[in-house]
Amino acid sequence: MALAPTVPTGAHRRRGAIRAVLIAAACGLAAGGATAVAQGALPPQVASLANSSGSWTLLAFALALPAPTAFSGAVCGALSLAGMLAGYVLTDLLRGYPSSTGLMVFWGAAAVLAGPVLGLGAQWLRRRPGTRAALGLSALCGVLIGEAGYGLLVLAESTHPLYWWGQAGIGVLLLAAGAAWKLRGPGVIVQVVLFTAAVATAFPVLYLHGSVLVLLVP
C-alpha cells in the first residue's frame, strides 16, 4: 500500500505564513471599515473605541500571533495596520467623508514603523523566552496603558473616562497574564515592568506629535 507523500516542513511554514498574512490584511481591512462606521454611533462610555490607537494595536498584535515565523509575524503586523487604514479611508470615502492627508501620513507611518514591531513582539512573546518575550509583551501593554493615561490626562474633557480606565485595566491584565504565561524569574519580571513603563511614558509624547500632524495637515 502506497503511503501518502509527506509535505516538507518548509512548505507547511510557507503556506501558514501566506495564510496568516492574508487573514491579517483582510481582518485589518474589515476592522478599519467598522471603525469608520462606529465613529459617532457608539455610546459615550465606549465611543473612544472607534478613535483609539489601543484597539488597532491590540488587533494587530493578535493577528500576528498565529504567524509561523518572526518575519511573517512582522509582515502581519504591518499589513494589518495598513489594512485598517485602507478600510477606514475607503469606507469614509464611500460615505462622502474624505480623510485628511495628515491622518493617512500618521497611520501610514504607524503601519510601516510600529506594525512590524508589534508583529515581531507577538512572535517573541509566543516563541522566545526571557528578555525578548518581555520586550514583545511590553510593546503591546505599554501602548494600551500609555494611551489610557493620555486619554485621562489630555482628553478628559472630550471623552468618557470609563473607556480609558477600562483600557488601562486591559493593559495591566494582559501584562500579568502574559508574564505568568511566558516569563520566568524575578529579573525578567522586572524587565517587562520597566519596558512597559518606558513605552507607556514615550507613547503620549509620540502620539501628541502625531495628533498635531493630523490636525495641521489638511
From TrEMBL:
UniProt cross-references to Pfam families, sorted A to Z: DUF6518 (PF20128)
Keywords, comma-separated and alphabetical: Membrane, Transmembrane, Transmembrane helix
Transmembrane segments: 71-90, 102-122, 134-156, 162-181, 188-208
Superkingdom as given in the UniProt entry: Bacteria
Alphabetical list of InterPro entries matching this protein: DUF6518 (IPR045393)
Name used for this protein in its record: Uncharacterized protein
